[in-house]
Amino acid sequence: MNNVKRLAPVAARVLLGLVFFVFGLNGFLQFLPQPPAPAAAAAFAGGLAASGYFFPMLKAIEVAAGALLLTNRYVPLALTVLAPIVVNIVLFHVFLAPGNPVAWLVLALEIYLAFVYRSAFRPMLAARVQPDAAAAPGAAQRSARPVESAA
């Protein structure tokens, strides 16, 4: 049981990384055949493709985030970047092309990994946060002023 707890996050991270890395590369190299899509899904994808920039940007983000997950580097950042993509994948398959279990697997892996790495997200989810002193507007001017002595 202890091995499962230790290996499950690694397996989920590698599997999610592979999904995004492979499908992201497929967007550039076209090595996997495209299944037939319902008319509404094809129209939606056609509109995005017609923009000229959206699919290359999306696939580049998928490849980069997938590579981060596979190499175990900046995993919380990769999960954060992939979150809106995962939401769109699920909504696409709910409303335009139902019946794809991979969308639900990707969602489950994303949620599981977000839970596993929840301590990394805790500061980002704080309701009120004060900026660092160095990042505060006018910090450079304040630190350049001489400090008045009490004497």
Please write the string of helix (H) and strand (E) elements: HHHHHHH
Give the number of helices.
7
The poorly predicted ranges are none
The largest sheet, given as strand count, sense and whether it forms a barrel, is: none
Cα Rg: 22 Å
Task: Return the average pLDDT rounded to an integer.
Answer: 90
- Terminal-residue CA separation: 67 Å
Count of the domains = 1
Percent of residues in beta strands = under 5%
Protein name: DoxX family protein
Keywords: Membrane, Transmembrane, Transmembrane helix
Transmembrane segments: 77-96, 102-121
Description:
The chain crosses the membrane at residues 77-96, 102-121. This is DoxX family protein. Keywords: Membrane, Transmembrane, Transmembrane helix. The protein has helices at residues 2-29, 39-50, 54-71, 75-95, 101-116, 118-121, 139-144. It has 151 residues and is mainly alpha-helical. It has one domain. Helix 1 (2-29) runs antiparallel to helix 3 (54-71), helix 1 (2-29) packs across helix 5 (101-116) and helix 4 packs antiparallel against helix 5 (101-116). The mean pLDDT is 90.
